[in-house]
Amino acid sequence: MTERKSKGERLRAFLQKPYVRIPLLLVILLYVGFVVVLIFVAISSLYVLGILVGTPTLQLLTGAISAISAAASATAAILIWRGNVQARKTVLIDRVLGPAYSEIRQTRELLDSWKADAVDTGLNTPFLKQLGSDWRYYTLDQNLRTDIENLRDSVPILGEQKALSKTAAGAVIREVAKTLFKTQNISAVRLWVSNSWVEGQPAGSGRSPDWELVVDSQPLKAQPGLYVHAIEAVDFDTQRSEFMQLLTKDKVPINVQRFQEFWKDAKDLASADPTINGFRKLLDNSIQTFSALENKLDAEIKRIR
Question: Which residues contact 240 (CB under 8 A, 6 or more apart)?
Answer without folding.
Answer: 234
